[in-house]
Design goal:
743 residues, alpha+beta, Aldehyde Oxidoreductase, domain 4, 3 domains, seven-stranded mixed β-sheet, 29 strands, 27% helix, globular
């Protein structure tokens, strides 16, 4: 994007370096960028200054002579609002006029890496965006504000501490003068960068903590917002890939004659993941793929079978696993207990099922490349693209596009869908968009892994838990990261806190003296799996929280009060538990309605959820109300926080009722939303979210509303019917979901 009306010296450029310093430069220069999209010019006030200059890899912020402030965001926008919340942090400390702030994705460059991951990656996973960038972004905003103040002080020959700022203007109240940031930008660029700029007292925040409208709201409403699937560049071809019926099969013989006879089909290429059909448009490519004749070599193909997996995992629950957490003396407590009991749970593979199927556009010339795609891990995607295309990283411009959902699928460290597109582009040597159909996406692998969990508890005569055991069997790309002690050791260095990506919920919150948790690190190299929204908190917390209800009810204890008695040492978790109970009028339902409750603390955040429902004799569930009480520390934008929790509730309801990928001898049985259902709008109940005020450091939000929703729902079913839910999805247990009819 280029700019008319601005000179190179009319912009203040600031970027946060991975090491925590600041780089300020006045001037331009091309190359290496990636924040702009040639199909998406953005008018003033709606995404960036008109005709903006070419971005440089060192660019973080621009202040135009008209006072407009354009911020580049290192996190990916996957629907959570990063392109709004991140600029709010900068704008707060900058004391900017929020109406003049615009934002877009940054280039893929080290200085935009998330500090949470050691400054090594641009990685939008683990609910780590706000947690990672918060302090860094504040420092950037504060430093630039101080530079603007110093520039004004120098111009007016007054002490800098006699000046104040407000809404993008520096004021000299004693002399009745003022200057906008735009007027000061050029001279501010020549000021030294403060190494330790003063930060605002949170009590004086006027942007952080406010429910500002999303910066991309208007474009999404009018349909002009550009996702990866919308990218269209000159002379672009479209490709689809015929993939083997079983994972890691290889094309043995390819007869492309019928495919090449389809009008519009240009080329057919065998690539590592299958056979690509390249055509003038999608429909020609798809018809060509249907006409393609391929014989597959499946000697090394995956043969995972859902039924066999369940049997294997059930067997392993009887064997000790790798110790993850050991508190106290569990065997002694078990011997002294009045009662010991346990329960087994099973959870199937699940698909991410984002609304926008995977897609990548690559313009590769042999000496350079542009890549457009929605990605949660652009650093790794760009790295793999560089290896496959034989280019240096600075020869690739990676455009991170907004994604129509990701849920972890677009954060694959192996960059599978980007690798596929680069192989096709290298073969064609022409601009090409590689499209995944819904069926490709559903059958394409990298699922939430299947899991089995056994939880056990020892009780005294009053039903108080004296010992707790938890054993998990599952697989994942992070299976080797289960050992919490090892991860703590690694985290003491400059390595990323990888334990945030592990699958076992070791943070069981209750005050229990004796705890033993272990896991079986099942390896299935021919069954591609990946973290999915809330990772295995979804399964581990489900087992934990439903078993707590089982114990409480068997001792005639109220599930809410029972939890209260075990949370004396967790005041923030106790606060959300009380808030959820109060907001839901816990215990006062009638008319055949029942309630269930569950809690979770993780990602530096806390949540308690209550589900209120009724169940008919033929197992039709009517959801009446879902209440979430959350403490996420400092809520940058409360409306975005609520939206993320509510979206997580809907995501979890889909998973709990319908989520199942079934494999028979390595072949995925589901293919689209007819046999992998999504929650429908008419099934969504009333959802209420209470955000507790807090000045603590920001916690994660994107995954927070998922893990506790399932057990709260199962506990409500238990209260209504007496049936203990030990596996998911509910459809397999005969439950269906009723339509909702607003009063």
């Amino acid at each position: 994007m280029s700019t008319s009306g601005y000179t190179r010296r009319q912009f203040l450029r600031v970027s946060a370096l991975a090491g925590g310093g600041l780089l300020v430069a006045c001037g331009g220069g091309g190359g290496g960028g990636g924040g702009s999209n040639p199909q998406n010019p953005q008018p003033p006030g709606n995404g960036g200054p008109s005709d903006a200059e070419q971005f440089t890899v060192s660019e973080f912020m621009r202040i135009g002579s008209d006072g407009r402030i354009h911020i580049l965001v290192g996190a990916s926008e996957i629907g959570q609002g990063a392109l709004t919340s991140m600029p709010m942090i900068v704008a707060e400390e900058l004391d900017a006029d929020w109406d003049l702030v615009t934002a877009e994705h940054s280039p893929v460059a080290a200085r935009f890496n998330n500090p949470y991951f050691g400054g090594l990656l641009q990685f939008t996973v683990a609910s780590a965006t706000t947690r990672g960038y918060f302090d860094n972004q504040r420092q950037v905003g504060a430093a630039v504000r101080q530079m603007l103040v110093n520039a004004a002080a120098e111009r007016w020959e007054v002490p800098a501490d006699s000046l104040r700022t407000e809404r993008g203007v520096v004021y000299d109240d004693l002399n009745g003068r003022s200057a906008s940031y735009g007027e000061l930008a050029e001279s501010a660029a020549n000021q030294p960068v403060p190494s330790n700029p003063p930060l605002k007292d949170p009590a004086s925040y006027r942007i952080i903590g406010q429910s500002k409208q999303r910066k991309d709201a208007a474009e999404k409403v009018n349909g002009s917002h550009i996702y990866g699937i919308d990218v269209d560049i000159p002379d672009m071809l479209t490709a689809v890939i015929a993939r083997p019926p079983r994972f890691f099969g290889q094309a043995l013989r390819v007869d492309s004659n019928a495919a090449m006879a389809v009008p519009g089909v240009r080329e057919v290429h065998t690539i590592p993941s299958g056979v690509a059909v390249v055509a003038d448009n999608y429909w020609s490519a798809e018809k060509g793929r249907q006409a393609l004749e391929v014989s597959w070599n499946e000697l090394l193909a995956g043969r995972t079978d859902s039924s066999d997996t369940r049997g294997e995992y059930s067997f392993k629950l009887n064997l000790p696993g790798l110790p993850i957490r050991t508190d106290g003396l569990v065997p002694v407590a078990q011997l002294a207990a009045a009662e010991n009991r346990s329960a087994d749970y099973f959870f199937p593979f699940q698909a991410h099922a984002a609304m926008e199927p995977l897609n990548v556009t690559v313009d590769y010339t042999g000496s350079k490349a542009d890549i457009w795609t929605g990605s949660q891990s652009p650093t790794l995607d760009k790295t793999f693209a560089s290896l496959i295309l034989g280019l240096l990283p600075n020869q690739i411009t990676f455009h991170t596009m907004s994604s129509g959902g990701g849920f972890g699928r677009r954060g694959n460290p192996l960059a599978d869908y980007v690798r596929d597109a680069c192989h096709v582009a290298k073969a064609t040597q022409k601009p090409v968009k590689v499209m995944w159909t819904r069926e490709d996406d559903m059958k394409g692998g990298y699922y939430r892994p299947a899991a089995a969990v056994r939880v056990g508890a020892s009780m005294d005569n009053q039903g108080n838990i004296t010992a707790w055991t938890h054993r998990a069997v599952t697989q994942d790309v992070t299976a080797s990261l289960y050992a919490e002690e090892l991860l703590d050791t690694l985290a003491e260095g400059q390595l990323p806190p990888l334990k945030e990506l592990t699958d076992l919920e070791t943070g069981m919150p209750y005050d229990i003296d004796n705890v033993l948790m272990d896991a079986h690190l099942t390896l299935k190299p021919q069954m591609p799996s990946l973290w999915m929204r809330s990772v295995n908190k979804f399964t581990d917390v489900f087992a934990q929280e439903t078993f707590i209800d089982d114990i409480a009810v068997s001792y005639s204890r109220d599930p809410y009060q029972y939890r209260r008695g075990m949370l004396a040492g967790k005041p923030r978790l106790l606060a959300v538990l009380d808030a959820a109970a109060q907001a839901s009028n816990w215990g006062s339902t009638g008319g055949g309605r029942s309630q269930g409750i569950a809690v979770l603390n993780h990602w530096m955040s806390y949540v308690a959820q209550v589900v209120e429902l009724s169940v008919s004799d033929d197992k039709v569930i009517t959801l009446h109300r879902i209440v979430s009480a959350i403490d996420v520390g400092t809520a940058i934008n409360p409306d975005l926080v609520v939206a993320q929790v509510e979206s997580a509730v809907i995501f979890a309801l889909t998973s709990v009722f319908y989520g199942e990928i079934e494999l028979q001898d390595g072949v995925v049985q589901q293919s689209n939303f007819d046999d992998y259902k999504m929650l429908r709008m008419f099934q969504v109940p009333q959802i209420d979210t209470v955000v507790l005020p807090s000045n603590e450091s920001p916690g994660g939000v994107g995954e927070l509303g998922v893990p506790a929703l399932g057990p709260a729902l199962a506990n409500a079913i238990f209260a209504a019917t007496g049936e203990k839910i030990r596996e998911l999805p509910l459809k397999n247990l005969g439950y269906t979901l009723a339509e909702q009819h607003p009063a």
